[in-house]
Design a protein that fits this description.
heterodimer; A: mainly beta; Folate-binding fold; 4-stranded antiparallel beta sheet; two-stranded antiparallel sheet; elongated; B: alpha/beta; FAD/NAD(P)-binding domain; D-Amino Acid Oxidase, Chain A, domain 2; 2 domains; 8-stranded mixed beta sheet; 6-stranded mixed beta sheet
């Protein structure tokens, strides 16, 4: 069971949250000039990092806010938590 | 290779079973091979066996960073079935299941295929209608599967909770009589023994640390490993959850997410379940092993993971669903829990084909369904590695489908939960 430190509610159990996948994804723009390669990369090619990985979580059974988490995918250790719109803090892993 | 037979058993009994030969060699890696397969799981071993058998004269090696079968092939729940929705998947998995039926004879090794059937339950009117649609499509694709009602389900599996006020009332089921279970370790050992006998070098505890390419052409020239440099102009990757890492060594990305898929086994009990039961609505399934343990599983842990350990919310979801379905299981104690790192593509269909790097080929993206694909996957991948041509059976499963928008969307089609 992960303990996730919601920036609004504090530390809660994993089953209150749902995972939203990779964060800081930028949709390629404008649509008229996006190539098939760029579009496929955006839709289907996740950064499947082994190690510290930036992802979004949603506090589904809580404040219902989205936020960012850096989590080590090899150990499940949560390295830091920060709000949407913020830059990731210095990683001290 | 000494063939296994009843006569051999008697012969070795006379010498106190002390003279059985080793089942496969443990050779030192040679400096060069014609074909190297990375990954000593079911797909890697089946590929090597088919290469050695069908395309004679090639020097073939398998490199495995741990022990053969120590990844997902030794961690899955041993179920083989072919209930897929789209034509390319249905044809592939139907063929794979048919090869499993002949595998013990083919390898001279008992893989303990138990054709016990697979029962997939529906719990609501919508679920029931969806299954009817699936079954119709599967029948058109030639899969031996039927949509059955309560009376027949009761006959097949009387221990289910049939009460009208059950938390998950049973409406109907898809019944695939030709599905079943296969002893997973036996598949590994059987293929390894047969491949070794045909001259394949199975090199264990040999981790790939780099992929070398020709600076001019960009084609692969060999591998850096924990046991030195090994050259080959044809390399196949069959490393499931670690495919992304190997692709990064060769300088490209893959449309894959690595996630943990859990399984659980109970203490051994007397025979109580003679089929495979599953329910997509509650994301649980179970069968009983020959030893008596209930082997259970469900959906994948819903976030990226390379940790080979599962987390408790999915464990609770799977087991709480299952004891609603079979109330008598509530008194059985859990013995072990584990997880394997599976490689999911967006459409839950595999990738078998060339990679962006010349000479480097891919066999990955099986998600939670790679075990049932081993015999056909190995045959197709061997054809690809030997000839460079994609066999028609797996043409639909190319890497390029993600750029050409030709997805084989089993994630939506078959409604697979894992």
């Amino acid at each position: 069971m992960l303990k996730i430190d919601c920036p609004w509610c504090g530390s809660r159990n994993e089953d209150e949250f749902s995972n939203g996948g990779e964060s800081h994804l930028v949709r390629p723009e404008p649509p008229s000039s996006v190539t098939e390669d760029e579009w496929a990369n955006y839709l289907f090619y996740p950064t499947n990092t082994k190690g510290p990985f930036k992802e979004t979580w949603f506090h589904k059974y809580g404040c219902r806010q989205w936020f960012n988490v850096t989590r080590n995918t090899a150990t499940h250790e949560i390295l830091n938590v920060y709000r949407i719109g913020e830059n990731p803090p210095e990683e001290n892993s | 290779m000494e063939r296994y037979s009843a006569f051999g058993l008697v012969k070795h009994a006379l010498t106190g079973h002390k003279k059985w030969p080793e089942v496969w060699r443990s050779p030192e890696p040679k400096p060069e091979y014609d074909v190297i397969i990375v990954g000593g799981g079911g797909h890697g071993l089946a590929t090597a066996y088919n290469l050695a058998k069908n395309y004679k004269g090639k020097r073939v090696a398998i490199l495995e960073k741990n022990w053969i079968g120590s990844g997902n092939t030794g961690r899955n729940t041993t179920i083989v079935r072919s209930d897929y929705y789209y034509k390319p998947s249905a044809e592939f998995f139907k063929y794979s299941l048919s090869l499993y039926g002949k595998l013990s004879k083919e390898l001279n090794y008992n893989v303990m295929f138990s054709k016990r059937g697979s029962l997939t339950l529906s719990h609501s009117r919508d679920d029931f209608d969806f299954q009817r649609r699936l079954v119709n499509a599967m029948q058109l694709n030639g899969i031996d599967i039927r949509h059955i009602g309560l009376a027949e389900i009761k006959k097949i599996c009387p221990i289910l909770n049939f009460s009208k006020d059950a938390r998950y009332p049973i409406y109907g089921a898809m019944w695939e009589p030709g599905a079943g279970t296969v002893r997973h370790d036996a598949v590994v050992w059987g293929y390894a023994r047969a491949a070794d006998a045909l001259g394949v070098d199975i090199i264990q505890n040999c981790e790939v640390t780099g992929i070398n390419k020709d600076l001019q052409t960009g084609a692969v020239t060999g591998l850096e490993t924990s046991r030195g440099k090994i050259n080959a102009k044809t390399i196949g990757l069959a490393v499931a959850g670690h495919s992304t890492e190997l692709a990064a060594m060769a300088g490209f990305r893959l449309p894959i997410r690595s996630m943990a898929l859990q399984a659980f086994v109970s203490e051994p009990v007397k025979p109580v379940l003679n089929t495979v039961i599953s329910s997509r609505a509650i994301s649980s399934y179970a069968s009983q092993s020959d030893r008596g343990g209930l082997v259970m599983g469900g959906g994948v842990d819903p976030y990226n993971s390379y940790a080979q350990k599962g987390n408790t919310p999915v464990l609770e979801e799977v087991l709480s669903g299952l004891i609603e379905l079979v109330p008598s299981f509530s008194r059985v104690r859990l013995l072990r829990q584990w997880a394997g790192i599976v490689d999911y593509t967006y459409d839950s269909s595999p990738i078998i084909g060339p990679s962006p790097v010349p000479g480097l080929f891919l066999n990955c993206g099986w998600g939670g369904g790679g075990f049932k694909a081993i015999p056909a996957g190995g045959e197709a991948f061997a054809h690809l590695l030997a000839t460079g041509q994609v066999p028609p059976l797996v043409e639909a499963f190319s890497l390029s489908r993600f750029k050409d928008a030709r997805l084989v969307d089993e994630a939506a089609g078959a409604g697979i939960a894992h």
